[in-house]
Amino acid sequence: MDKGSPPPYNTQGGYDNVGSYPQGSYPPSNQGQMYPPTQPMGGYSPGVYAQQQNSTVVVTQPSPGGIIIQSRPPDYMVASILACLCCFWPTGLCAIYFAMQSSTLASEGDMVGATQMSNNARNLMILSVVIGVCWITVVIIMEVVVVNSTYTGY
Questions:
Q1: Virtual torsion, Cα 95, 100, 101, 104, nearest 10 deg
Q2: 3-class secondary structure for 93-115?
Q3: Do residues 79 and 67 touch, judged by C-beta distance below 8 A?
Q4: Neighbours of 55 (CB within 10 A)
Q5: In this structure, what is the dihedral angle of CA atoms 76, 82, 83, 87, given to the nearest 10 degrees?
């Protein structure tokens, strides 16, 4: 038989001993043992399962240098919402957008992109607070100046 030809076809189909029973009695006898084999109280009986002790289990684990654990970057969502509501809303809305993008990218596993979006959200949140504080300070100063200039005592 050459290497390229398939094995010969069995004309009977199926197994070689179709229709014949295995040799010996059915069901096979357990040589005087009860089925299932009984164990003494408390555990292992070395004589009953001695043939099964020769199996080898190989467990492979990744090397310690191959695992990279990177923490999830903060998304600054709560701080962005508070900055939007209490300070300067245009940059606060942008901070909320970048905070949502950071959360989405982190859940997808893109930690580099999530860190960039987190930094953008943080910077816009800080900018919103600074602009808001400056604006509130200007408004308070203007009110004091206007009230003092228009106030005439009796």
A1: 160
A2: HHHHHHHHHHHHHHHHCCHHHHH
A3: no
A4: 6
A5: -170
Cβ atoms of residues 125 and 83 within 8 Å = yes
pLDDT of residue 53: 47
CA distance 132 to 91: 10
Token pair of 93 as six digits: 């809305």
The single-letter code of the amino acid at 48 is V
Q: How far apart are the first and last CA of the chain?
A: 126
User: Mind listing the pLDDT tens digit for each residue in 53-112?
Assistant: 454 555 566 666 666 677 888 989 999 999 999 999 999 999 999 999 999 999 888 889
- Each residue's pLDDT tens digit, 19-50: 555 565 555 555 555 555 555 555 555 555 44
- Length in residues, the chain: 154
Distances (CA, A) of 153 to 33, 43, 135, 141, 142: 116, 101, 30, 21, 20
Instruction: Name the token pair of 69.
Output: 């654990």
CA atoms within 13 A on the CB side of 63: 2
- Here the tokens at position 147 are 């009230």
